DNA sequence: AGCATGAACTTTATCCATAAAAAACAACTT
DNA sequence: AAGTTGTTTTTTATGGATAAAGTTCATGCT
């Protein structure tokens, strides 16, 4: 049966909105809520129904207002708000990055399905999706070959990353001075400086900033294949560093400094300086990753 | 139910081997046949069973020999030898490239499933696989957005292709003179010249040659992401030109000449000359594609 | 006419079942 | 011992069913 995670997540969101007083007085129309929560009206109605049932909202003559106070126990547990597909993704990544699965191992849909507690279909869909990351290969009628998160993989990944980023950085710097992206870059620079000041406690926030920065650079000259490739990078890094927290503070601090130098270089419009700053940053990111692979 | 296309294709192959006298005298062992045909022994046995049943092979005391002559009617029809997944691929590509599907249309799994006569599962798997080609986008819980085989797509595709190919060609030329790839290149050069002589009748053979050539260039410095990208190119071109035969002879003839110039440039090891030959060839491939998109 | 709710219909996410194909095991033969 | 063939077990490819979520239609209210 399909999970009702969309509903549960929406319900939790609505509960938070109620608690934070974002829905004071008469509640907005179903359509308005739908827009705010990004789900269908059908789901909104289901949420409203349950909220009314639990007296979190009061319905009097077709008018809805906030009801009793929201309690912690009103929320659905987080585990019930992620779809099966998401569960599979997380479990697989953990299996791959944590476990000691050797490169060259073959992957068995049925076995993973049993291990993760889902139907084989879900496993297969995930593997198909994931195979574009270059870590898997499908052998028809037979199964999947796990190629491993190896040094080779990292080298090949970074070779492309450098090519793409040099290209994008160059094109970024050639934009007219009137481009709004320059302002966005300036804003990001500020964000970096701010984070640097508080790095001791907030070093966790760097990964979001990193993402924004690299995506901004690509924005000046969009190319779907480059964007897709950056998806691979984000994905891999997200999971890899999620389970590999070693030296996180130092790593991130160093990266912020590199970003700042990189931003300055971009602002200088000097091609050679840009090239150097970009390469320096990527070389260090690569070294960090390689070190953690040993 | 799973299709028995693997068996039927294997059967047809075996029939051809029998007809062509590749299996004269006592037939090879099941294991040997398995190796030659690239299927499991289970399938080999099924094929042998049917061959015996139809008296195409004779079994006397555990020894198998060729039986009566193979007739055309012994073959399974081609349509029965392609898996559902393959059917879906072909039908979808036809739907996309032939039909007048506008960019921005949304794709409906159920509708395609009905139209192609398969279960939704198969459609979905295909779409997931295909989405890495940059022509589709999945919107969860909602459906798929068809982005269209547009001019933008072609421009972005070629931007990457040029980057990758310049990189690979450069690295190819830096190989030591002792590398066996130089011999392969020389062999390909001969094949090109041969084909050029017979171009009037054999122009169809170019696409195989084209593939071999570009893959050879990448072989000197393997990178899975570049290989994967080349898969996209092959796939797209394969289907696009399958239904777009306009000027095929001229196109291919011109491309052969470009390849020959390109090969000569590589053999010269002169970086600048290589760059020019490579760019010239890709520019012309791009122009051809763009022209056909109008 | 334009927006709100209610109800009906369609599509997606997910599980389950099963024939075909592969793989593993077993028993023989040379 | 290595290679055969026969048999059993496991896994993949594919169809089908259904609750959840999305979309469209219908009705009513300003």
Structure report:
Two copies of one chain form a homodimer. Chain A is mainly alpha-helical and 294 residues long. Chain A has three domains: 5-79, Arc Repressor Mutant, subunit A (Orthogonal Bundle); 84-146, Orthogonal Bundle (Arc Repressor Mutant, subunit A), CATH 1.10.10; 151-293, Four Helix Bundle (Hemerythrin (Met), subunit A), CATH 1.20.120.530. Helix content of chain A is 65%, strand content 6%. Chain A contains 13 helices and five strands. Chain A has helices at 5-19, 30-37, 41-53, 84-97, 109-116, 120-130, 151-173, 180-197, 199-202, 206-219, 224-242, 248-268, 271-293, and strands at 57-60, 63-66, 106-107, 136-139, 143-146. In chain A, the strands form two sheets. Chain A has a three-stranded antiparallel beta sheet with strand order 3-5-4. In chain A, a hairpin with a 2-residue loop joins strand 1 (57-60) and strand 2 (63-66). In chain A, helix 2 packs across helix 3, helix 5 (109-116) packs across helix 6 (120-130) and helix 7 (151-173) crosses helix 10. The longest helix of chain A is centred in the middle third of the chain and has 23 residues, at 151-173. Chain A is globular and about 70 Å long. The mean pLDDT of chain A is 95. At the A-B interface, helix 6, helix 7 and helix 11 of A face helix 6, helix 7 and helix 11 of B. Chain B binds a DNA duplex (30 and 30 nucleotides) through residues 1-7, 29-31, 39-43, 45-46, 62, 83-85, 108-111, 118-122, 124-125, 140-143.
């Amino acid at each position: 049966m399909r999970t009702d995670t969309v509903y549960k997540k929406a319900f939790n969101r609505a509960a938070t909105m109620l608690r934070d007083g974002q829905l004071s007085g008469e509640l907005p129309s179903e359509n308005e809520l739908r827009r705010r929560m990004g789900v269908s009206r059908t789901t909104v109605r289901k949420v409203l129904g349950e909220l009314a049932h639990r007296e979190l909202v009061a319905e009097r003559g077709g008018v809805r207002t906030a009801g009793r106070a929201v309690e912690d126990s009103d929320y659905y547990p987080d585990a019930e708000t992620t779809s099966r597909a998401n569960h599979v993704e997380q479990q697989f990544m953990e299996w791959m990055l944590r476990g000691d699965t050797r490169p060259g191992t073959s992957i068995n849909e049925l076995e993973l399905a049993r291990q993760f507690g889902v139907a084989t279909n879900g496993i297969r869909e995930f593997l198909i999706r994931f195979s574009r990351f270059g870590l898997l290969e499908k052998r028809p009628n037979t199964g999947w070959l796990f190629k491993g998160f190896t040094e080779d993989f990292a080298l090949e990944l970074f070779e492309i990353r450098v090519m793409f980023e040099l290209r994008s950085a160059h094109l970024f710097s050639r934009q007219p001075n009137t481009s709004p992206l320059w302002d966005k870059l300036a804003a990001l620079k500020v964000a970096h400086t701010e984070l640097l000041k508080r790095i001791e406690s907030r070093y966790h926030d760097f990964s979001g900033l990193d993402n924004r920065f690299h995506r901004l650079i690509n924005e000046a000259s969009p190319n779907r294949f480059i964007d897709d490739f950056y998806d691979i990078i984000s994905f891999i890094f997200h999971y890899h560093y999620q389970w590999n927290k070693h030296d996180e503070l130092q790593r991130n601090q160093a990266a912020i400094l590199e970003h700042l130098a990189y931003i300055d270089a971009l602002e200088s419009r000097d091609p050679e300086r840009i090239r150097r700053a970009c390469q320096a940053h990527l070389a260090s990111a690569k070294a960090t990753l390689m070190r953690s692979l040993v």
